[in-house]
Amino acid sequence: MEESGIVMKNNKISYSTRFLLIPLILSLILTGILSLFTIRNLQGNARVINYTGIVRGATQRLVKQELNHQADDAMIEKIDGLLNELETGEGPDALIRLDDKAFQAQIKQMRNAWAQMKTAIYDFRKGGSASELYALSETYFDLANDAVSYAEAYTEASVHNAQISLLLVNVFFLLITLVLLYFSHLQHKRQKRLELEELETRRKQEELDQLNRELQAPMNEISELIYISDPETYELLFINESGRKAFNIDSIEGKKCYKVLQGLDQPCSFCTNAVLKENETYSWEINNALTHCHYLLKDRLITWNGRRARLEIAFDTTKSEEEKQRLKTMLDNEKLIVDCVRELYEDEMLESAIPEMLRRLGEFMEAERITLFSLSPVRLTITSRWSAEGASEIEMLSDLKVRPFYNRWLKRLREDESYVVEDVEQLKTPFPEEYKLLHAYGVQQLIILSLEVRGEVVDCICIDNPASGKLQNSIIVLQTLRYFLLLARHRAIDKAKLAQLSYTDSLTGLFNRNRYIQDLDKKISAPQPVGVLFVDLNGLKEINDQFGHDRGDEVCGPVPITCGPASLRIPATASAVMNSSF
Residue 155 pLDDT > 50, yes or no? Predict the structure, then answer.
């Protein structure tokens, strides 16, 4: 690590050095180019100065030759060409044109003076005045001297400007170099700081890696399912051994959490990423379609290997959930039984209590219809019925001949006290007539419970199309309700018999003393004409007391009693005190 740090540091120093060399190289190149350009201009200026002096000297020599009568037309032509090249910068001598107004104005004056001198030369050759030619040559010499002075001044100014330019360029690049040195110093300090931060980051990363390794070991030993994923990309970052076994996976590289854990091809619609908050744990529950287990989930945002991640711990609560559902089902069953039993025993009239019981039972079973009917070898006769809201109104099995399957139903009811059809399609082949009947009335599932009196099936409860899951799970509840319904029926029958015994004489079938008192109370509260017959036969009390009431009845036999136009034969027993209202 130290060697790599040194190499990295040397690389950074080399980079800084190269960064500083760039302006220096640019400065050197630009200075060289500017120097070359300046030298070239100085060379051109020097040639202009030189050739301006040549024009001056050549003109003086030409005048001397002409005054000595030595004509030199070649010199005249040469001077014409030099003056033209000095003015335009175009010619065979490669002279430049000085961009100086004073010099160019002086050249024009020299050309004008030269034209006059050429005229004077041609005139002298024809015998003209020599003094005029000499005077013009002196004037031309002064003009040439001034032109040389202007050229020298322009050249000196150009040299001065070039010096200033080079100085400014050097100063500019020197300032740039200083600025770069300053920024290089700042960069160097920043690099040192970054190096320290990088070393610190590496140290922390190593600590995090070590911590992750230390965390993974116990997480792999935990029986609960633990996984870590990227909340942005849904990529699985870690899953413990329990999770790998539960979902049967070996490698998680490049795999998405929704694919591995839920078997989906896109993010889960119930994903909790949007509701997770920093430093908070989010709890929720779900049934997993792959493991078929119920989980209590704990989700939390964490940092994993330097990145933001989502941690989820899944606690398998399948057994406790099943137990909770079982207890809830038991409570619901017990509540249904208690409500139905209360309805049966609180209502004095069994005929009005049964429909309410059927309603409660139908809502509990989530069935379409519940029917209470009497069973006979010929017909099923409905005595009470309940239909769910929205259920089709049909005369379910009412007034229909059931002879083809009566015996089979009766046998099953006697053996099991119930007849359950989980899928009516199963009857299609073995029992086609029964299937045709049930299918015609839209019955898919069916439960029939028998109500027996003295071991004989007299009535049945029929539940058609209950909710899935309640077909088998509610048999015990239905049998319990069947038992209480039978008790209620027996109670109603016993109550009727008790009422008959309380108000009727068992021997004569006439109303007894209790009924007499009851009727008398009614007559007193609402007075009306009443006739009373009192019969007392002497000697019978002793016979009854000594030999019993049966002996008294034998002794007396029936005695005719006449009351008005009506006659009635009654046994003459002392125990039968007959009070009757007519």
Answer: yes
d(CA 168, CA 30): 12
One-letter identity of residue 489: R
- Cα 201 to Cα 2, 4, 196, 288, 482: the distances in Å are 15, 16, 8, 40, 76
d(CA 504, CA 515): 7
Model pLDDT, residue 18: 61
φ, ψ for residue 576 (rounded to 5)?
Answer: -95, 95
The CA distance from 449 to 462, in Å, is: 7
pTM, to two decimals = 0.44
List residues bridging with 380 in a β-sheet: 375
Return the residue matching tokens 């006290």.
417
- pLDDT tens for 250-282 read 888 888 888 888 888 888 988 988 888 888 899
Taking the C-alpha atoms of residue 395 and residue 399, their distance in angstroms, rounded to an integer, is 8
Residue spans of beta strands (DSSP E) within 189-243? 225-229, 236-239
pLDDT in the model for residue 453? 58
What's the pLDDT tens digit per position in 217-257? 777 777 788 888 988 888 888 888 888 888 888 888 888 88
Q: Which residue, among 242, 267, 239, has the nearest Cα to 251 in the 3D structure?
A: 239
Residues 52 and 140: beta-carbon distance below 8 Å:
no
Contacts of 559 (CB under 8 A, 6+ apart): 537, 569, 570, 571, 572
Which residues have CB under 8 Å from 303's CB, separation 6+? 208, 309
Name the DSSP class of 93: T
What mean pLDDT is predicted for residues 17-44?
Answer: 69
Q: In the numeric block, which tokens belong to residue 10?
A: 């040397």
Please name which of 28, 55, 40 lies closest in space to residue 158, comparing C-alpha atoms: 40
- Taking each helix axis from N to C terminus, what angle separates 2-67 and 101-125, rounded to the nearest 10 degrees? 30
46 Cβ contact partners less than 8 Å away, ≥ 6 residues apart: 155
Quick one: DSSP state of residue 96? P
Least confident of 448-452, 456-460, 493-497, 544-548: 456-460
CA distance 452 to 417: 9
Amino acid at 576: A
A 10 A CB-CB count for 512 gives: 20
In which region does residue 499 sit, left (phi positive, over 0), alpha (psi from -120 to 50) or beta (all else)? alpha
